[in-house]
Amino acid sequence: MVALTSAEQAMLQGDDGKAVQKAMELLVRYADALGAERFVETNNVAGVPGSSPPWVKDYYAADGGDYRAVFCRFDLDADEVFDVPRMNAFSCHLQGGMDPQLWREQGMDDAAHDNFVSDEGEVAGHGIQILKTCTPYLAGNVPVMGEHCAWMESSAVVFANSVIGARTNCEGRESTSAAMLAKRIPDWGFHRDEYRKGHHAVEVQVPVDSIYEWGMLGYYVGDAVEDTIPVITGEISDPSLIRHKHFGAAAASSGGVEMYHMVGITPEAPSVEAAFGGAPRGERFVYDQAARARIYETLNSVGSCEDVDYVMLGCPHYSIEQIAQAAAMIDGRKVHENSALWIFTSRAVKATADANGYTDILRKAGAMLMTDTCSAISQAIPKGTQVAALDSAKQVHYLPAMMGIEGWYGTTQECIDAACTGKWKGRLQ
Ligand code: F3S
Asked: Which of 93, 315, 381, 392 to mutate to test the pocket of ligand 1 (most atoms within 8 A of CB)?
């Protein structure tokens, strides 16, 4: 049984109101299921509180069929419906289901958009920051090393744990919504030192020095170590935020990696010994030319037709640096009449892209810079798409399988060339 402080006991008794009481009830059930002995306090929560498509609201029609009903019955798993106050923890909303302006282009109808507007008003009204991105760390929510967070979204979780040294498990909608009210999350998993030690070694024997290479290595690592913590050494170089972003997203997709150590690069791995922290060492995996070629083949195994009708960039959501690069690559060119180019980012980053003229450059070329969502989350792709080209190992893992289309993986330049010619010419670089 999880031990409670007097403040937590008071929340559970209802001293802080019904919503906090129900949130604590859910968190106590969650902690007991995990075997956690206590809670940690958190003031950094990222989830999708109360947002739902209309059919979920319809399911709760007997309870009012509104945001309140969904939050109480679905998010908090409560047996009654009550008023939900403003959140107590600093809270943000992760990616959502449509672009606030380009939703028609994404194929959404008026009813879905009305529902989106209504939910967003509720989210803001409850004091939750509308970041609407899978990269909160690029949009105003950057935790610090050692900070206890409660985040959903696997690519954000692996970034927070590995690159920043913040502490979060890959939470769900229910636990994050409850944590927004109670400011607590079970002291379990990545919140604890003993869980952050490496399990398996990965030795990199080929140069890994670009986003494209970091993405392929991430996909290899996830496939090799599954949901454990890899300790990576060798020829991995030129670390940057966007390289880590693509590496972690790929590793979390092909496996379930929620934290990795790169020796001499990530903050909890100044040495191999520190990364393993005295824990027994598991297997040793080698990423060599043969492994790299195999991963490239795997990522491109769902591509056969070279006529590309859709190029999607921005998984995880593009940084301003990536948007600037894409704009420079397409400036003066045109998206081919048989193809489409959609690039996804957060609203915060798009505001900078607007100010810098990148959005205009992309628009003049026939591309669209979209926010809030992505094709995998919204299941929105241009009508008639049969073949997509992607510069993200994570997106090529999900999108073709979800939408029943073909997919190619390549560099950003190859993807933009495909958008402008309608043809895939990518090859293992
Ligand atoms: Fe983000 Fe969508 Fe990729 S939410 S991490 S762009 S699958």
From this structure: 315
